[in-house]
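ok so for the tutorial part 2 we go from a plain amino acid sequence to predicted structure tokens. step 1 is just haveing the sequence, like this:
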Amino acid sequence: MKVEIITNPLELHLHGLSGIAQNKDYVATAFKLSGKMWEIVKANGIKNKGKNIWIYEKDDNIFSGVELEGTPSLNPGLEHRRLSLPKYAYFKHVGPYNLIKQAGLSMRHELTSNGFKIDMPYIEIYGHWTNDETKCETELLMSLR
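step 2 — the prediction. this is what the tokens look like for a chain of 145 residues:
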């Protein structure tokens, strides 16, 4: 596993929806939020970069959002989230989505084994969908202290 440590700050400006993972079912909650977010985006013709971005936060909070194109304005029903990571670990998972959890656990293990302190949030950036699941790309970002 090739995990990169990034010290150039990352700043994201996202628009989407947030919620709390009931019974710690993070994936189902994120999918539900994502579906509602895309309904709003499509119904309002909101121009965006087309990638789902899931942010896992403290206390089982999840945010599902998308970066907008151009200068964003207030969008009906969407929350604005500004996220800044001064230092983080990065790994690109290529393959089926059902293996992302294992990739994240392996990433966490590698980082802690090398003395890094992981913090929240944890972010998954889903690349554009392809029918060949072996080519699906998902970027995993773990905030570091």
